[in-house]
């Protein structure tokens, strides 16, 4: 059964963050779907597995570099797509930790540079991508613009505190997606703008925090990717502006 049966065929997809664990798994799922005619994949770096994917799919996959910390690079991304009408834009990029910084356990651990990095990559970059890529989407047929969010970005669901920068950046992303959905509806009535929570996935992003994950709740990238595409397939314009978990559950603001 097609993963993206709700879309008109052929499907043209734009994938931002294709080099990450979830991004690579999503790319593989898209290339396995016969109704997807072309994937334009963007990543900060192009690792060998992505180069091999291009060699295996020269007529269906285009790889391009992108620097999400620079709006000029995002504009260049849009320029490369100016003759394309994508049905699907999916952003799988994100920042949780670095070699120097881990999520804060207390306000005492707040650092300006780390906070700004989180906001830049997790919130501002998707908003700028919406600014430059939504104008390329069709107005007369179904289209989806989605970005990976996180359940910890829910203000109402926050019971534990901590992780100040990451929580704040994902909460900001959710608000930016809601604003984008409201504005876009006026000209793109069939567009769905949504945030997606992939669950805890066995990737380098979650590796330092996997010890506390309950049994059965650490997902493979392949499972998460397929689940997210199934959720995307079931979304309607009435869902636009909301955030959904990997199992389709609506996440409260």
Automatic annotation (TrEMBL):
CDD domains, sorted: carb_red_sniffer_like_SDR_c
Signal peptide: none
InterPro entries membership: Fungal_SecMetab_SDRs, NAD(P)-bd_dom_sf, SDR_fam
TM region positions: none
Pfam families linked: adh_short
Name under which the protein is recorded: NAD(P)-dependent dehydrogenase, short-chain alcohol dehydrogenase family
Any Gene Ontology CC annotation: cytoplasm
Source organism: Marinobacterium iners DSM 11526
Gene Ontology MF terms: oxidoreductase activity
């Amino acid at each position: 059964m097609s993963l993206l049966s709700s879309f008109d065929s052929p499907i043209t997809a734009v994938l931002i963050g294709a080099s990450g664990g979830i991004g690579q798994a999503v790319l593989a799922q898209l290339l396995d779907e016969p109704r997807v005619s072309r994937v334009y994949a963007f990543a900060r770096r192009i690792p060998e597995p992505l180069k091999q994917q291009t060699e295996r799919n020269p007529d269906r996959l285009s790889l391009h570099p992108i620097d999400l910390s620079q709006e000029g690079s995002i504009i260049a991304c849009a320029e490369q797509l100016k003759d394309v009408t994508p049905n699907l834009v999916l952003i799988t990029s994100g920042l949780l930790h670095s070699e120097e910084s881990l999520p804060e356990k207390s306000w005492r651990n707040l650092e300006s540079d780390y906070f700004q990095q989180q906001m830049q990559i997790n919130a501002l970059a998707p908003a700028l991508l919406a600014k430059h890529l939504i104008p390329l989407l069709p107005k007369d047929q179904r289209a989806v613009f989605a970005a990976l969010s996180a359940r910890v970005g829910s203000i109402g669901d926050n019971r534990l505190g901590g992780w100040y920068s990451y929580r704040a950046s994902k909460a900001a992303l959710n608000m930016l997606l809601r604003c984008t959905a409201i504005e876009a509806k006026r000209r793109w009535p069939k567009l769905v703008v949504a945030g997606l929570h992939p669950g805890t996935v066995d990737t380098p992003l979650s590796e330092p925090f996997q010890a506390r994950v309950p049994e059965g709740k650490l997902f493979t990238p392949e499972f998460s990717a397929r689940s997210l595409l199934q959720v995307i397939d079931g979304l309607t314009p009435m869902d636009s502006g909301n955030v959904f978990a990997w199992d389709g559950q609506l996440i409260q603001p």
